[in-house]
Predict the structure.
Amino acid sequence: MKKVFLLAAAAALAFSACVKPVYEDKPGKEEEKTVPEEKEKTDTPDTPPEKTDIPAAPKAGELLIEEVYYAGTLIQGAEHASDDQYIKLTNVSDHTVYADRVLFVMNYIQGDKTDVGAYYEYPELNDGLAVNDMYLIPGNGTDHPVKPGESLVLALAALDYTQGRTEGEGEDAETIEGNPDAIDLTGADFEFYDENDVYPDTDNPDVENLVIWFKSSATITTLHHSGLQSYAIALVPEGETAEKIMAERHWSGTYYFHFDEYNFDYAIEDDDVWVIPGEWVLDAVNCSAEDSYFRNPWGPAFDAGYAWTVKVFNDIARFGKSVRRQIVDGKPADTNNSTNDFAAGTPSLKK
C-alpha cells in the first residue's frame, strides 16, 4: 500500500512539472498567450557565405616580369651609369596573389657571341631553367599580397641615387656623388643585399631584403649593364630549400667553347648551376643586343624571343632605358615572345 502511494505521488509531480500554471493578475481577465511562429521549411540547405579573400599563390602567367631596368642612368660627363637597377613584377590576374616563396633567378647559360666570334655551346635543356643566382621573396604564404594590377619592385639597392652617399667604413670609405638624372629606389618593396668582406654593400633598413639562396658574385649582385642576361621567376613548392635544390638539382653534362679552329670542352658539374623545373616557372624574359645575340639561354617554352634596349652591344644610348611590356587591351602583353612583348623606353619609376 505504501508503494502504490509513492508511485501515485511521483506521477502527480511529473504531471505538474509538464503543465504551465496560469496566473490571473486581475479577476475575470484571461492571460494573453503568444504562439511562436514556425520557420518556413525549405528543401535547399543553408549556403555558407562566399569567401572573398582566399590566399592564392600565383600561377604561370598571373605574376609577370613587367619591366627590367638593367642599363642604369648615365652619369653626366661620364661614360658609365649609376647602379639604379630594378625589376618590376606585376599581377595581371583578376584576383590577389601572394608573392611569398617566389624565386628570382638569373641564367647560367651564356647566349651571346663575342665580337671576335667566340661562343659557348650547351646541351639542350627544354624542361627547365639552368640558373646560378637565386634570390627568394620571404614569407609564410600570406605576407606579401599583390592586388590585381599592382606591382612589386625588386631593387638591386634601395637607395636614392639622386643623392650623394658614403659607402664603406674607415679607410675603405668611398664618397659617391648623387646623379640628378637617376632614380630614387627607396620606395622599393625588396632589395638585393649582399653582405661580403670584399666590397661593401649598402643596406636600406626600411626595405626588406631578399633571401640569398645562391649568388655567383664574390662581391655584390648587379644586372648586366648591356642586357646580356636572362631573368625568371618561379614559385618554390613548400618543403623545397636552397640546400635541397643544390643537393638534388645540379645540372650535369658537357659544354663547349668555340673560337675559330679552337674547341674546348668542359664539365657542367664543375660549375655552380642548378635546374629549376619547368612546372615551377611563372615567367621568363631573355635579354640581349642584336649584334651579340647567338641563342637564348632558355628554351622557347619559356621565352621564344628576347628584349633589348639597343641593337649594338655597349651602345651608350642604352643608358636611361628599360625594357618593358607593351600594353595590349589594357594589360601587359604576354605572347611568350619577348621580342614582340617588350619595347625599350623611359623607366616607369623615372620622375
About this structure: The first strand starts at residue 63 and ends at 69.
